[in-house]
Specification:
The chain has about 200 residues and is mainly alpha-helical. It has helices at about 10-40, 45-60, 75-90, 105, 125-130, 145-150, 155-170, and strands at about 65-70, 70-75, 180-185, 200-204. The strands form two sheets. A two-stranded antiparallel ribbon has the order 1-2. A two-stranded antiparallel sheet has the order 3-4. β1 (about 65-70) and β2 (about 70-75) form a beta hairpin. This is Reverse transcriptase domain-containing protein.
Length: about 200
C-alpha cells in the first residue's frame, strides 16, 4: 500500500486482517489483566507492586502540583485553590443590569389551579422520579448509582421520604452541601501550566 494502490481483493484482505489483529490484541490485553488480577488475589507481591506502580503513575498524571499565575508559580494547595476560584469567577462574569423586563402575566394566562404544587411530596411521586433517572451513569459523591436506589428502594425509601419532607417544612439543616459542587480541572494540553490550559468540569 505504501508503493501502489491496493486491488479490491487486497483491500478486502487487509480489512479482514486488521479486524482479526485488533480482536487478538484485545483478547491478549484481557488475558493479561486477568492474570494480574488472579496473581493479586493469590497475594503475589509482584502483582501488587505492578498495580501500585500503575495507580501512582495515573495519580501523578492527574495531579496538579503547580500553577502559573501571572509571572509567578504557586505550589501550595490553598494558593492554587484561591487562584482557580479567582480565575474562573472572572471567566463566568457578572450579571449586568437589564434595561427592559418582560411582563410574564401578559404572555401566558394560567387557567388551571396550581394549588396541588404546594402539596407535600408523596412516596409515589418520589418513586416515579427515581424510576425516571437515567441508568448506567457514574455514581455521585455518595457513591450510589440509580440502579442501587431502585434495587434497595424498600429499605431506603423512608430516609428519602424524610429528606423530601425536610424540604417541604423548610428545615434546611445540613442542606448546605446541596449547593456545593466538586470542581475538576482537565488539562487541554500535555504541558498545561496556567489555569487557561485547563477545562473545568463540575459534579453538583
Amino acid at each position: 500500500q505504501d508503493f501502489r494502490p491496493l486491488s479490491h481483493d487486497e483491500a478486502w484482505l487487509r480489512r479482514k486482517l486488521k479486524c482479526s489483529y485488533l480482536g487478538l490484541a484485545s483478547l491478549e490485553r484481557s488475558i493479561a489483566r486477568q492474570r494480574v488480577r488472579l496473581a493479586w488475589l493469590r497475594g503475589d507481591d509482584v502483582a501488587v507492586s505492578y498495580l501500585n506502580i500503575h495507580a501512582s503513575h495515573r495519580k501523578q498524571r492527574t495531579a496538579i502540583t503547580s500553577l502559573q499565575v501571572g509571572a509567578q508559580t504557586v505550589t501550595s494547595h490553598d494558593a492554587m485553590a484561591e487562584a482557580a476560584v479567582s480565575h474562573f469567577s472572572g471567566v463566568l462574569g457578572t450579571a449586568e443590569a437589564r434595561e427592559f423586563s418582560i411582563d410574564q402575566s401578559i404572555l401566558r394566562q394560567y387557567t388551571s389551579p396550581l394549588d396541588d404544587l404546594d402539596e407535600p411530596f408523596s412516596e409515589e411521586e418520589i418513586w416515579r422520579a427515581v424510576q425516571c433517572l437515567p441508568s448506567g451513569k457514574a455514581p455521585g459523591p455518595d457513591g450510589f448509582t440509580t440502579e442501587f436506589l431502585r434495587a434497595s428502594w424498600d429499605i431506603i425509601k423512608q430516609d428519602i421520604y424524610d429528606a423530601f419532607n425536610k424540604f417541604y417544612t423548610a428545615n434546611g439543616r445540613g442542606f448546605q452541601k446541596l449547593n456545593e459542587a466538586l470542581l475538576t480541572l482537565l488539562p487541554k494540553r500535555a504541558d498545561a501550566a496556567a489555569l487557561s490550559d485547563y477545562r473545568p468540569i463540575s459534579l453538583i
